[in-house]
Amino acid sequence: MAAGVLRTVPLAGELTASLISRVAARYGLPTAGVLRLWTCRNSPARHDGGGARADAEVVLNGAGRRVLAELCRVEPKVLARALPAFTMDDPKISTGREAGVAQARWRAAGTVAGPAAFGCRLCTARRTGQALRAVRYLPRWHRVCLRHGRWLLDADADQPLEHLDVRGVAEVVAAQRRWPGVARRAVRAGAEPEQAFAVAHAVVARWWEQALSWEQEEIWPRRLHQLAGGSVGSRLAWWRIVGRDAAIFPEVVAVAQALLEPGQLRVMAAEAQSGGSGTRWRATVPAEQRFRITQLVDEAREQLVELRGVHSGTTAEVARTLLEHLSHSADLIDQALVHTAAAAVASGVTLEEVAQWSRLPAEELAAVFALGEGED
To answer: How would you classify the pairing of strands 116-118 and 39-40?
Structure first.
C-alpha cells in the first residue's frame, strides 16, 4: 500500500495498534493485511483461548513511524502527541543493519505506557467519524465517559464487553466528577494522586472480597445488579469480576479523599520525595503488595492469639489444636516471607542480601521467584 489517501486521526492516548486497526477498517482491509507494511518477528499476546488480546500494542522504529504517518496522512508530531507508544524505541528494531526497514514489535500495553481500556465507541464516532472499537491508555481513576455514562472496561480481560452502562448509577458518575478535586488536593500537598488511589483501591478491593459474607450489605449488591442491566442472574461470580472496579469506585474515591487528611499527607509526601530510590519501603513497593504482606502477617497473628489458654483439655485435644494452629500460622508466615522477599528483590535489593536475611539459599529463592510464587 502506498501513502494513504484517506485521513485517519488518532485519539488522545490511543494505542498505536488500535490506530492501525482503525486505518485498516477505513480502507476496508483486514488489520493483518495492513500490518504487513511493517516487518515484525514476534506475535501479539493472546488469551488462553487463543484470541488476540485487545491490549496488544506495537512499538515502531523510525522507518515504521514514517510509514504510519503517511498511511494516516497525519504529521508525525501530531501522532507523537496523541499516541503514548509512538516515540518509544525498542533496540531490537531501532538499531542494527535493518534499522532503515519499517519494523514493528508487539508488546503488552501495560509494559509500554500503563493500563489500557476500551474507548467509548460513541465518542470515537463523534471525533473520527468511525463507530469502531478503539483502545486507549486510561488510568483506573478515569474510566467514566461522562458524556455517555459508560464505564470503560480493561482491555486485557478475556470477555466480550467494552463498557458498562452507569447512567442509572449516579454515585459512580458523581465519584468520577469528584476525583479531579481529590487529585488536585494531593498535588497541592506534594503527594501523588496515583499513590492515594492505589492505596484506596487495595483497601476497598479487600472489602469487596469480604462482602460476600456481610449479611446486611445492601449497597454493593444493588449497584452490581444495576451495572449488569438490572440483574446478574445466574452469573454472580462473573459479574463480581467484571463489575468490581465500577461497583467500588465511589468508595475508592471516598477512601482516597480520607487518606489526604493532614497526617496521612505528610507520610505520602515524604515517600513521594524519595523518588523510588529504594531507601523507603512504602515508596518502592506497590500498595497492593504491602497490603497482602500485612494481611498474611495479621492472619498468622490471629492464629497464634487463639492459642491463649489452650493447655486445658485432653492431651489429644490440646495437641490437635496446637498443631493445627501452629501449622496454619507457619504456612501464612512462609507466604509472607516469600511475598516480602519478592518485593525486596523487585525494589532493587540484591538476591544475596534477601537470602541472608530470610535464611534461605539464594538458589531456592530464585527458583521460587521463577515459578511466580511471590505473586498472587
So the answer is: unpaired
At 152 the three-state DSSP class reads strand
Sequence-separated (6 or more) residues with CB below 8 Å from residue 359: none
Give the pLDDT confidence of 55-106 residue by residue, as tens digits. Answer: 999 999 999 999 999 999 999 999 999 999 999 888 888 877 888 899 999 9
First-last CA distance in the chain: 46
C-alpha cell belonging to residue 287 = 500498595
How many angstroms separate the CA atoms of 346 and 106, rounded? 24
Distance CA 360, CA 340 (A): 13
User: What are the cell numbers at 87?
Assistant: 516515540
Contact 120, 150 (CB under 8 A): yes
Q: Is 259 helix (H, G, I), strand (E, B) or coil?
A: helix
DSSP string across 73-129: T--HHHHHHH-TTTT---HHHHSSTTTTS-EEEEEEHHHHTS-EEEPPHHHHHHHHS
Contact 104, 93 (CB under 8 A): yes
- Provide the pLDDT for residue 370: 67
- For residues 158 and 3, what is the distance between their CA atoms, to the nearest angstrom? 35
What does each C-alpha distance from 96 to 64, 90, 92, 192 come to in angstroms?
Answer: 15, 11, 8, 40
Q: Which of 199, 206, 363, 372 is nearest to 285 (CA)?
A: 199
**What SS3 class is residue 43?**
coil
- Check the CA dihedral 31-33-34-38 and report its sign: positive
The DSSP output letter for 164 is E
Closest alpha carbon to 22 in 82, 81, 62: 82
CA distances from residue 195 to 253, 268, 269, 336, 353 in whole angstroms, order as listed: 12, 8, 10, 23, 28
